[in-house]
Amino acid sequence: MVEEGTAALVVREFDEENDTAAVEEVERLCEVGPTGKLSLFTDLLGDPICRVRHSPAFLMLVAERVMEGEEEREIVGMIRGCIKTVTCGKKLSRSGKDSHDPTKPVPVYTKLAYILGLRVSPSHRRMGIGLMLVRRIEEWFRETGAEYSYMATENDNEPSVKLFTDKCGYSRFRTPSILVNPVFAHRVRLSSRVTILKLTPSDAESLYRFRFSTTEFFPRDIDSVLYNKLNLGTFVAVPGGSYSAGSWPGSDRFLVDPPESWAVLSVWNCKEVFKLEVRGASRVRRGIAKTTRLVDRALPWLGLPSVPEVFRPFGLHFLYGLGGDGPKAAQYMKALCGFAHNLAKESGCGVVATEVSSHEPLRLGIPHWKALSCAEDLWCIKRLGEDYSDGVVGDWTKSPPGLSIFVDPREF
User: Fold this and answer.
1) Are both 125 and 241 inside the same structural domain?
2) Is 90 found in the same domain as 203?
3) Are the C-beta atoms of residues 367 and 337 closer than 8 Å to each other?
4) DSSP β-ladder status, 2-4 and 231-239
5) Is the domain of 129 the same as that of 191?
6) How many whole angstroms separate alpha carbon 89 and alpha carbon 396?
7) Nearest to residue 324, comparing CAs of 368, 269, 258, 401?
8) Last residue of a domain, which of 145, 162, 188?
9) Is residue 393 part of a domain?
10) What is the pLDDT of residue 391?
11) 373 near 192, Cβ under 8 Å?
């Protein structure tokens, strides 16, 4: 508890039954965009912990201003955190079940915490509340055995970056790209030279564990992600005519002798978790956007790009687990993104989005609009202690970036 004149600040666990309305009000106050500019607003659909609820372990804290006598209380800030086990590096196998292939790298796992949704009411900023919330959530991280903590923010969000890097001991770590593509009124035409197959969750798990388990940030509980009700499926693109639903041999056999080129991605239904809305658009901009949609609906065979109705609440699908191999892998990824676009259109979504490493080779095959995307998101990381399970990796915070990262859809 921290004294503030005749009031005290108390940090406590979020009470879903009694705090939801007050937390939503703080979210609303924090999302007031700059005058005359476009701003993106998030509607959590009445569930303030929706974006961490599906993680293995999560916690939400609120900062409450308690007036003298405790008759008047006001929530002025909040923070969310979750913990999971992920890949932080790799090593060569020398014993155990993989000893027959000592040249095959195996993942090195670490327990990782993630900070999401730090908010402080505008009227209570510059009072140390954000710092207090970060320190309290880090206490829980340590008590739960987390070895690292990281957070994501916009690269130009100076107050957030300064808080974490200057006061909380975090360092800049990765700068992935958020790529966003609108969902048009027309369906995207798919090439007949590419066959797209949907995998079962168990088959998808085999593929991901065999092929991507050494990718940075790969979640050890990938099965929980793939079997989650929000997961709409994992899809593989292969050369046309090479496989069909009836001839698919299963991921294990497929990876023993794969085609020259192939690609894979999974789709997560964020529409059931939260909705977005763009505000601050002028009448002229709204009118132009509406015109593009009308033309697209009237002449869908032309395949004209159109601006979806983003000026009212809209949903999105998130593409994750992107990967593949071969000289045409980017082309096959483009086909998968087209398939995902059509799936999102059928679901009434406004956009499809993904997040990839800034070095990801397959990003060349990911359609996106630059105006909707973020070229450099910023991930900052902190080492929480000295006794680690990742000794072979060393200090993960000082490791160079790899070509790819695995972005967990539960945290998007």
Assistant:
1) no
2) no
3) yes
4) unpaired
5) no
6) 8
7) 258
8) 145
9) no
10) 65
11) no
282 and 237, same domain (yes or no): yes
- Strands across the sheet containing 171-174: 2-4, 7-13, 57-67, 73-92, 105-120, 148-154, 377-383, 171-174
User: d(Cα 118, Cα 116) in Å, to the nearest integer?
Assistant: 6
Tokens of 178: 């958020």
Write the DSSP symbol of residue 215: S
336: domain CATH number?
Answer: 3.40.630
- 352 falls within a domain: yes
Question: Which CATH number does the domain housing residue 60 bear?
Answer: 3.40.630.30
CA 232 to mean position of chain CA atoms: 16
Question: What domain range is 351 assigned to?
Answer: 180-365
Q: What tens digit of pLDDT does each residue of 33-56 get? A: 554 567 788 899 999 999 899 999
Interval 56-115: pLDDT, tens: 999 999 999 887 665 678 999 999 999 999 999 988 876 555 444 566 789 999 999 999
Residues 6+ apart with CB under 8 A from 176: 355, 356, 357, 358, 376, 377, 379, 405, 407
Backbone phi, psi, residue 211, to 5°: -100, -30
* Contact present, 61 and 137 (Cβ < 8 Å): yes
- Tell me if 393 sits within 8 A of 383, measured CB to CB: no
Widest Cα–Cα separation across the chain: 75
Contact between residue 113 and residue 150 where contact means Cβ atoms under 8 Å apart: yes
Q: pLDDT tens, 313-343? A: 999 999 999 999 999 999 999 999 999 999 9
d(CA 289, CA 303): 16
Alpha helices (H) along 213-347: 222-226, 251-256, 283-298, 329-346
Q: For residue 83, what is the enclosing H or E element? A: strand 73-92
Find out whether 13 and 60 touch, Cβ atoms under 8 Å: yes
Structural domain count of the chain: 2
Distance CA 63, CA 30 (A): 15
Q: Is 345 domain-assigned? A: yes
DSSP label at 166? Answer: I
Burial class (CB in 10 A: 0-12, 13-18, 19+), 60: buried
Strands 262-269 and 275-279: unpaired
Tokens of 92: 């060569």
Residues 6+ apart with CB under 8 A from 69: none
Residues 6+ apart with CB under 8 A from 132: 2, 9, 11, 63
Same domain, 111 and 230: no
Q: Rounded distance, CA 362 to CA 368, Å?
A: 13
The reply to whether 231 and 114 lie within a common domain is no
